[in-house]
Amino acid sequence: MAGTLVQTQIPQQKLYDGVQFPAVLSPSPAVPLTLSALTQTIEAQRPYLEAQLRQSGAVLLRGFPVNSASDFNDVVEAFGFEELPYVGGAAPRTNVVGRVFTANESPPDQKIPFHHEMAQVPEFPSKLFFFCEVEPGSGGETPIVLSHIVYERMKEKYPEFVEKLEEHGLLYTRVLGEGDDPSSPIGRGWKSTFLTKDKNIAEQRAAKLGMKLEWLEDGVKSIMGPIPAVKYNSTRQRKIWFNSMVAAYTGWEDARNDPVKAVTYGNGNPLPADVIYDCLKILEEESVAIPWQKGDVLLLDNLAVLHSRKSFTPPRRVLASLCK
Question: The sheet that has 219-227: what strands, in order across it?
Answer without folding.
Answer: 211-216, 219-227, 170-177, 263-265
